[in-house]
Amino acid sequence: MRFHDGGGSGDGGDGGTDRELSADFVVDASGRGSRVTHWLAALGVTGVRERTVDTGLVNATRLYRAPEGAGRFPVTMVQADPYAGRPGRSGMILPVEDGRWMVSLAGTRGAEPPDDADGFLRYAMELADPLVGRFIARAEPLTDVRISRSTHNHRRYLEKVRDWPEGLVVLGDALATYNPAYGQGMSVAALGARLLAEEVRRAGGGLGSAGLAARVQRGVVPWVDAAWLAAVGQDVWYPQTRGARPTPVDRLVTGYSRRLTKASTGAYGAAAALWEVTSLLAPPARLFAPGTLLSVALGPLLPPLAGAPLTAAERSLLAP
User: 193, 209, 223, 251: which sits with the fewest CB atoms below 10 Å from its CB?
Assistant: First the structure.
């Protein structure tokens, strides 16, 4: 493997050198920028199938000092609606360390959030519910707005490669990336790392065990596919998504998933199944277990909420 040492030279140039390192076993976890298909081509492995589904999602993020009294503030999110026939808009407040909030706004192609302070707040206020905007209007901004556009779904079907090279495993974003709005990329990477560790233990600690790399590459597929279907199954509905359009199967699955989501707002059985599958604690088949099907058929057992379930302390943090 050729390794680039990017040591600085101080003169504005790269200053790095190329070195070749020998290894008995290589794990490519280099992320979205992986060059694994080029490396495979150098080994004579070509024709790797790849697919990209891109909503054009843009994330705008800013850190805030949380208002006084927000010490136990929960994650707060206004979700986008992929079924409305228009670009999606969403917003989230995530409490982080040192009494701060990480606030992220997101919009698909045609509804991208701005990168200026006034526009950031205005965008938050104009979401389907102004809750995020009203909270951050009371908070002190600590940073400028940061923009990220690395949000497309991209899948490399490496498990379909015949005669997979011994001693090479590709995990995490180097294998598949997902729209970060769904929060599953790190989970899939962690599950892949755990599987690799299990296979190494099963082989007696020897990384040179015949077929180990291919077993890992095939073994991660159920988790990769589950996250891919969850992300792409939503993203295909945004009107300006590139790389896929809804199919009859998508329409059927979406009809069921919307009923499941509605049921989960007021039925524990549906909510538990949805949580376990989206958190990758259970396979998608969990959504079609008898108990889940019954919950979906019965619908929510509790009346819908009139608004966000805020405590008195949380309500006091809202700007008028």
Answer: 251
